[in-house]
């Protein structure tokens, strides 16, 4: 009796593993961890469990059933003998699990969209969990319709049994083993490539964001309320915010210039004066709020005057200009309406 109970437990080990993966993925989705870690936790669930559950439903038996008289009699008396179902080996199950999962994921996305459900990490994992639990439950029920001797059993006993595809007797041909190994390599390479693609930082994700802010009466920093004019002798408090999203620690330098422009639709710089300089080292994800005063000297007033913030990675050049800055902002201070703009500058 105990032996039968242990055997039944071993035949359900894949269910326990699937439930554990669902729990781990659920915790990973809601836990305060980086997105890349969350995605790596969810990958086995998304790319294996839906397909494995469906494979369990379709193929409830071993790849090759024992042919003894007792087994044949039991199989003939079982409901599963008449449905024409044949089993598959462990490697084939792994390949089908991956392939079917890849096919099912877009269909689940379309279903969620058609139901008006916003596709988020939580809703996507929830849909996968529901599909997996329902299909896996039906598959285990179907597996139990067969005699214990022919039910599929996960490859726990030994590595040799796993390579042998779950067969009780005989050995696989060299060609069969090679094909099985190739299948696993392809599946592992596909999942690994996807994981690398989604977790490796891309050029688009590496950036520095800059914004010019003012302090509201409540003390909150806002991207509005810029002074329309700053006359000589007048002082205005401003805040330059620099956010590091470069996936690395960066030493930033800021050069603040006052510029007087020529008239016309395409003005050029008539004169410039270096007003302020500052440096700060930021770790990835940190933001530097550089509070400073703008106090134009005589000669830098009127409608053709602007403040330019030149942002560099590392030391600034000997002649800092807009065309050699990593990022820059401009603020017009001589017109009826202030205009602050941020222009990213591409780096080779």
Q: Specify the structural class.
A: alpha+beta
Secondary-structure element pattern, one letter each: HHHHHHHHEEEEEEEEE
Unreliable stretches: 66-84, 157-172
The biggest sheet amounts to: 5 strands, antiparallel
N-end to C-end Cα span: 72 Å
Range of helix content: 25-40%
Please indicate the count of domains.
2
Percent in strands = 15-25%
Q: Please provide the count of β strands.
A: 9
User: How much is the radius of gyration in Å?
Assistant: 33 Å
Shape: rod-shaped
Features:
8 helices, 2 domains, about 20% strand, Immunoglobulin-like, about 350 residues, rod-shaped, four-stranded antiparallel beta sheet, five-stranded antiparallel beta sheet, alpha+beta, single chain
Question: Any overview of this molecule?
Answer:
With 348 residues, the protein is an alpha+beta fold. About 10% of the residues have low confidence. Helix 2 runs antiparallel to helix 6, helix 3 crosses helix 5 and helix 3 packs antiparallel against helix 8. Helix content is 40%, strand content 22%. The protein folds into two domains: 198 residues, no CATH class; 138 residues, Immunoglobulin-like (Sandwich), CATH 2.60.40. The strands form two sheets. Strands 5-4-7-8-9 form a five-stranded antiparallel beta sheet, with no helix packed on it. It has a four-stranded antiparallel beta sheet with strand order 2-1-3-6, with no helix packed on it. It starts with a helix and ends with a strand. It is rod-shaped, with a radius of gyration of 33 Å.
């Amino acid at each position: 009796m105990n032996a039968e109970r242990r055997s039944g437990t071993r035949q359900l080990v894949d269910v326990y593993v699937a439930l554990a993966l669902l729990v781990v993925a659920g915790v990973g989705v809601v836990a305060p961890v980086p997105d890349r870690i969350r995605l790596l936790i969810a990958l086995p669930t998304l790319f294996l469990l839906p397909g494995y559950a469906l494979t369990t439903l379709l193929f409830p038996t071993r790849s090759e059933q024992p042919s003894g008289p007792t087994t044949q009699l039991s199989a003939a008396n079982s409901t599963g003998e008449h449905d024409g179902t044949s089993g598959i080996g462990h490697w084939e199950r792994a390949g089908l699990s991956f392939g079917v999962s890849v096919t099912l994921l877009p269909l689940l996305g379309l279903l969620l969209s058609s139901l008006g459900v916003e596709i988020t990490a939580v809703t996507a994992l929830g849909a996968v969990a529901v599909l997996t639990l329902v299909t896996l439950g039906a598959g285990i029920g179907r597996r139990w319709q067969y005699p214990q001797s022919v039910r599929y059993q996960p490859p726990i006993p030994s590595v040799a049994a796993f390579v042998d595809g779950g067969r009780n007797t005989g050995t696989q041909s060299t060609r069969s083993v090679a094909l099985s190994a190739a299948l696993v390599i392809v599946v592992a390479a596909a999942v690994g490539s996807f994981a690398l693609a989604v977790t490796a930082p891309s050029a688009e994700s590496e950036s520095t964001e800059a914004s010019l802010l003012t302090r509201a009466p409540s003390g909150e920093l806002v991207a509005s309320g810029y002074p329309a004019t700053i006359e000589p002798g007048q002082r205005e408090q401003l805040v330059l915010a620099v956010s590091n999203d470069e996936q690395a620690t960066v030493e930033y330098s800021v050069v603040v210039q006052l510029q007087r422009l020529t008239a016309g639709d395409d003005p050029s710089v008539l004169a410039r004066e270096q007003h302020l300089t500052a440096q700060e080292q930021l770790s990835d994800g940190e933001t530097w709020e550089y509070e400073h005063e703008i106090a134009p000297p005589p000669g830098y007033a009127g409608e053709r005057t602007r403040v330019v913030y030149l942002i560099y990675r590392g030391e600034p050049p000997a002649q800092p200009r807009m065309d050699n800055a990593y990022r820059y902002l401009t603020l017009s201070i001589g017109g009826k309406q202030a205009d602050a703009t941020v222009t990213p500058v591409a780096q080779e």
